[in-house]
Amino acid sequence: MMANGTFDLGTLVNDGLQDRSVSDWLWMVFAVMLVCNLGVLCFSRTKRPASPMLHRLAITILSTTSIAYHYTASNFGQTPPLAPSSFDFIVYNIQYVRYIQWIVNAPLLVIALFLRTGLPLSDVVLPSVMAEASVLLGLAGTFAADHYKWAYFIMSCAALFNVFGHLLSKTLRDSFPTPTGLSRWEFVVSVLSLAFIWTLYPTVWALSEGWNLISTADAVASYGIVDLLAGPVFLAYVLRARRHTHVGSVTLLSDDKV
């Protein structure tokens, strides 16, 4: 990849090592997100997808992530920490644009799990709100002083576990296959896949913003990998898994079913 001049403008890598490869990595993730977004967009315009709303959700998620990575790769969307840290060997700028991306995308990914399932629409509300709460608490912990940040981290993880506890409990309460033909196994695999990916976020947070054990370059690379899993990889799986479901008489936008 061609070298770029982003690091001449600021301090994206702010632990004393202005590594140009970090900027190149951010631009590469942006390019992957953009290409995947254009691919889904072209497919939805040239074909008649079985789940047009699911494709629109995928386009929205990938567009949001593309914009966030373009902003980050351009060395914007960050601010110095407001509270002093007891870890002096690595100091992180807070990349708040990343959290804006997650605030937008988290509830949309939860909704994507429910689309074309025929499950009650009311079951989407609580996990969507808890997903946003988890991101907001993580952001609050990033700005907080060291002796407060772990309280926010615990609350963020609790909100995240509430999301998947609620979703997995549905596999015990509800009857399967769903009205659209989705099997119990397909729904469980979708939930567990997203749960595994989202659990990686607090893990990276604890090692970077939490304990400051990894460099900024490692943190940026790790977040990029997880975003690729939560974006193109997971969305490709959901789009493929739901293409065989049949809507039939189920109204996708009613107050009862999704």
Automatic annotation (TrEMBL):
SMART domains recorded: Bac_rhodopsin (SM01021)
Pfam families linked to this entry: Bac_rhodopsin
Transmembrane parts of this sequence: 25-44, 56-76, 96-115, 124-144, 150-168, 188-208, 220-239
GO cellular component: endoplasmic reticulum; plasma membrane
Keywords: Membrane, Transmembrane, Transmembrane helix
Major place of residence: membrane
Location in or out of the cell: Membrane
Domain of life, per lineage: Eukaryota
Membrane topology: Multi-pass membrane protein
Annotated PANTHER family: 30 KDA HEAT SHOCK PROTEIN-RELATED, PTHR28286
Family label: Belongs to the archaeal/bacterial/fungal opsin family.
Name of the molecule in the record: Rhodopsin
Source species of the chain: Bondarzewia mesenterica
